[in-house]
Every structure is written in C-alpha cells, then in structure tokens.
Amino acid sequence: MKASIYIRVSTAEQAAEGFSLAAQQQRCTDFIKSQGWELGEVYKDDGYSAKDLNRPSMQRLIQDVKSKKFDVLVVYRLDRLVRSVLDLHQLLNIFDEHNIMFKSVTEVFDTTTAMGRLFISIVGAMAQWERENLSERVKMGLERKFLEGKRIGGPAFGYRIDEDGKMVIDQEKAQIVRWIFNSAKKMGINKIAKILNKQGIDSPKGGNWTGSKVAYLLRNPTYTGKIRYLVNRNGYGEKETIDSNHPALISEEEYNEVQEILKKRHGGRKKAHTSDYPFSTILFCNRCGSPYSGARQENKSGVTYYYRCNGTARGICQASTVLEERLVDELLNKINLIIEESKVALESEKEETDNKFRLKQIEAELQRIKKRRRKWQEAFANDAISLEELKERMNEEKEKEEALMEELEAFNTVPNETDVSKDEIIDALKNLKEIWYHLSRKEQKEILNMIFSRIYIKTEGERPHIKPIITDYELL
C-alpha cells in the first residue's frame, strides 16, 4: 500500500517549533514506516494558509487522488489539511469516491466507517467554532481596552505607552504634531513634508516624510482624545470615533478646521476651470491661511466681483473683503518683481523631488499594501491574529492607500496642457500684463492656474479703500 504525505505551513507559522515542514514530514514518514506502507510523494504547500483549497500542492494532490496514484494520505494534523468543515467534507467525498484512506499522525480517525466520518466532522466543526469563539472573546477584550484608552499596537506619533499600557504624551514629538496641525492651515502637505525633512525629523516609522504621511497624521482623530473604533462587524470599512481617556494634543475645533481645509485643497484643483472667479482656488489669506472664495454682486452699473476670506466667514479672522479689480491691479503691478523672484525660485526648485520618482515610490508602496493585506488575511486564517485585529490592520492599510491615492491624484489634477516648463512660466508672466484684459474670465483663470499654485494676500486700509497686498506666492 502506497502512502503519500501532505504538509503545510503558513507564513505566520514558519518559526513555530513543531510546525516546520521538515518536522511534519519526519513525523509522517515515521508513521508510514511503522505501518509498513510504501512511501509515496510528499505534497508541500510552503507559506500558504488553509483558508481554502486554492493551494498549488493541494490542487495537485486532488488531481492525483482522482488518478489513484496512492492509497493513503497521511497528515501530521487535521488543520494542516483544512480549517473549514465545508472543505473537509469536500475532500472526504473525493477520497471516498476514489477509495483513498485518510490518516492523521496525531489524531485517531477512521474514515472508512460512518461513525468515523461523523467524528472527524465533529472535530472539524468544534475547531472552527473555537476559533470563531476565540475571535469574539478577543473582540470584547479589545473593546474594553479601547474604552479604557489603552492602545492596541504601537502608539500614535506624539504619544508613548506607559507601564500601565496607556497612551501618554511624548512631549518632544507632541510639539511636532502641534506644529504640523498649525502649519496645515497655511501650507500644503507636501511643503510641510519638505520642511520636516530639511530639519532632519524622522517620520513616525522612520525615514523621510511624504505628503501622504502628513495627510495620514492630520486625519487621525487620536490627537483629539478619541479612538477610531470599528462598528461594521461584517466588513473592513466603517469606523466611528469614541471618547477615550488618553490626553488630547489638538482641540476638536482645530482638528475639524484642518479637515475642512484638507477637503477644500483636495477638491479645489478639480474645479479650477469651472469656476467663474479667476483667483478662487489659488488665493489664500496671509493672516489665517484660509482660502478666499469668490462672489459677485449685480447692480445698475454692472457686476462687481470680489473675494472673501473663509476664515472671516467662520469668525476666526478679520481680513477684509477685496475687490477683484484691485487684486488684478496688485498682481499686474508686481509682475516684474515676481518674474525676477521666479527665475531664482524655479532654478532652486530644479533639484527638488522628481515627480516621476515619487510616482514610482507611491506605486511601489501600493503594491506593498496589497502584499501586507494578503499577509494579514493569512495570519487571521492561521489564528495568528484575531478578527478585530484583522479589521484594524485592514483599515489601517485602507487609510494608507487612500492617502497615497490622494497624493497620486494630486499629480494628475492639473491637465496636461498646464504642465509647463520653467521658461513657459516666465513667458506667461511676461505676457500677462499685455493680454489680461483681452482674455475671458475662464482664460484668465486658466493662465493663473498655469502659473501659480497659491497667492497669499493681506489687506490694508479702510472701506471703501481696502487694498490687497501680495505677501507671498507659490509657482505651480
């Protein structure tokens, strides 16, 4: 009688003593010799979980069973073969149909009798129930820890874990977190990342900061004294925030303000060619960092266009409303100065991060996220992590993916025709004064968005003589 062996080990079990492929094979071989059987082929699935039957050697084994290439299949333990009662019944039916016996080295099963088949099914069902029951117990424990403010896994950047397992403030890193939130009101995530890198400050997991890492930090409600908590029990998606007892680094008001700013910046470029206001996606307040929104007022003499600071509208700023015609005068009067400054600025930008290189980095990280997702799923299938831990890990990966996709989209929000060179920007600035009043409002907006990513202004004077002053700008 010929006996073949099936052995399997998942990635999470590689280091576990007694689970190695070599150890399983040796125990199975010794068992076959003790029975006086002939040793057949050894089927190995290295690094695969038993969540389903879609494993290379398992598929080959099933084909060989149907070809009657051996008489007995030997495994070290039942869970090396399957972890699902459904899969177990499917295999037993295939074995029975082709008169193949099944033996476990560490468990006594007789699949040739009805009682034996019932017993093995009960064992499989009990094992599956215990895994699911364990997941529920772990889930309840995690919920209790969340409510107590205890961190599952590492602490958020700006915190550390004390001897009681609770998150407390790391004063040095907390200063960085507060600076990032404050800076997000005045500048973009990529600029924040550049400043942090120039100062030699490591990102939360080491290495350089990127725009996506900054965005991920800014969206984390942990800094308001809350915990993100999974409420969708049947999937990986929806979270809500619940109060925790760990100390807040950022007020809820400031956190919400930053979320609004991020939303507007993310959506602004998409509307760049649909708005009726040439400065509406690039004009920002020097005082509070908020964007300006365009508005219009119709009267007997025609239409008056003006811009209002969003911070003023929310009651957090006192910047005055500015007329568009005065804003245009200020811009055209400073064109020559902007041209000279732009030559220097654009030259220095030449050695900054190359977009193509960053795109490759993003694509590589997205691939790593996919691999990590598979790893977490396999770890769960092999009971290395609980269901709640799986959901938390999958949501973390989803958030990282969304931040990367947002950064990726930022490279593509400006149409190709506006992807211009340094010389083209300088030429556009030189011609702006001559052509401005010959352009339609849509064309005015297009050319401004081709040159500038941001223009910062302050206001001087009293009504009705409010004058806008350009204090800073960022070229595209």
State the main characteristics.
single chain; 476 residues; alpha/beta; four-stranded parallel sheet; three-stranded mixed sheet; 16 helices; DNA_bind_recomb_sf; coiled coil; DNA recombination; DNA strand exchange activity; DNA integration
Can you give a write-up of this model?
The protein has 476 residues and is α/β, with parallel strands linked by helices. Helix content is 48%, strand content 17%. The chain has 16 helices and 14 strands. The protein has helices at 21-35, 56-66, 78-81, 85-97, 114-147, 171-183, 189-198, 211-218, 252-268, 310-313, 324-333, 335-349, 355-381, 387-410, 422-435, 441-451; strands at 2-9, 38-46, 72-75, 101-104, 159-161, 167-169, 226-230, 239-243, 283-285, 292-299, 302-309, 322-323, 452-460, 467-475. The chain has a four-stranded parallel β-sheet with strand order 2-1-3-4, sandwiched between helices. Strands 9-13-14 form a three-stranded mixed β-sheet. Strand 13 and strand 14 (467-475) form a beta hairpin. The longest helix is centred in the first third of the chain and has 34 residues, at 114-147. The N and C termini lie far apart (76 Å). Residues 230-238, 268-274 and 413-420 have low confidence and may be disordered. This is Recombinase family protein. The active site is at residue 10. Residues 2-149 form the Resolvase/invertase-type recombinase catalytic domain.
